[in-house]
Amino acid sequence: MSEFKIEPGIPISRIEVDFEDLIGQRFGRLVVIERAENHGNRICWLCRCDCGREKIVRMTSLRIGDTSSCGCLSVELTAERRRASVPNLVGQRFGRLIVLSQNGQWCQVRCDCDRGMEKTLPAHELLSGKVDSCGCLTFERYAERQRAKVMQHRNQGGK
Predict the structure, then answer these.
(1) What's this model's pTM, rounded to 2 decimal places?
(2) DSSP characters for 2-51?
(3) How confident is the model at residue 81 (pLDDT cuts 50, 70, 90)?
């Protein structure tokens, strides 16, 4: 049977008898600094992230690579994907809108409509085709549908 040290306040179960001491080991951005209180029958470790935050992580999550930072890596990767996914749209036309400028972490664009109105909106609304004018085109499309309904009604014998 293996030797093991019983530390006050930390429950020991038969599963823990052969646990590996991970103190000082690195897992991605995390370095194990001390043993933490178990979560149920799961062995946990207190880790310090490269960003300075501390996080309690299950040993299995460290070993299989499920957890490699305090969460800061996910935030950085999301921000990087967002920046990389929006191309420079300045000068491009989307329907009646021409992009004049683009800025901000949420990629806001300022556009000029053919009707002379300015509109500021998220770039993804242009790229998805959701917005293609300052609102004037929406009104014109609505008016055209109404005229078509009136003409159809008249063609069917209505007044």
Answers:
(1) 0.46
(2) ---PPPTTS---GGGGGPPP-TT-EETTEEEEEEEEEETTEEEEEEEETT
(3) confident
